[in-house]
């Protein structure tokens, strides 16, 4: 084919997106009678798409988000308590540009973590920096890095990410040092960058989790100043699925015929 002389040049330039589609695009160019510049533009689009997908994959791996828990995979039909129009609006990620927060509250299993993760992926698609952690894992990591020397680096990442997702706040009580660390993260990001927090704890219970009324009040004051609060009610999706998957058990009682 006429395109064969391009192959070693594309390899040398590491233009694998163009390399992978060269034969297809060359055939399309002949079929559609594309001008040379149109043909080049199509090839360049392929290369840009490959690079964008590669960058998204790298950022996704670094973020801690789960690639399978997207908004497209969220079953809104099974979660009637979720304000779908609001979620769709938040998915535009304009709340991040405005440095607003999101608090997702409700019992376990109603989809809080999935929604937070899905919004994180939408932010990644827009080339925003996202970090996602279960709260207790993050606070353990902060404590561990103080001894290993990586504390400053992790702290910098937490404060400079465009979106920080803190999952399952309140699942475990906080030690005094963890409570202080969490408060400082919230305070440092206040009106500078967005946070999404998921929790099965009511606001009135935060003081119990923090173990410090003053820190809990100050943290809530900052988080709720510019925030979207979604309280999701309902039964656990996981438990509903378990009940559906369980085989039905019926007991048959036999009665002996009387003679």
Describe the protein's architecture and organization:
- Mean pLDDT is 87; it is low at 248-259.
- It is elongated and about 70 Å long.
- The chain is an alpha/beta fold.
- The chain has helices at residues 6-12, 16-32, 36-63, 84-90, 94-97, 112-125, 135-148, 151-160, 176-189, 206-210, 213-223, 237-245; strands at residues 101-105, 130-134, 163-169, 194-199, 227-231.
- It has 2 domains: 6-63; 76-236, Rossmann fold, CATH 3.40.50.300.
- The chain is 54% helix and 11% strand.
Question: TL;DR?
Answer:
This protein has 259 residues and is of the alpha/beta class. Helix content is 54%, strand content 11%.
Descriptive terms for the model:
alpha/beta, Rossmann fold, 2 domains, disordered C terminus, 12 helices, five-stranded parallel beta sheet, 259 residues, elongated, 54% helix
Q: How are the elements arranged and paired?
A:
Blueprint: H1 6-12, H2 16-32, H3 36-63, H4 84-90, H5 94-97, E1 101-105, H6 112-125, E2 130-134, H7 135-148, H8 151-160, E3 163-169, H9 176-189, E4 194-199, H10 206-210, H11 213-223, E5 227-231, H12 237-245
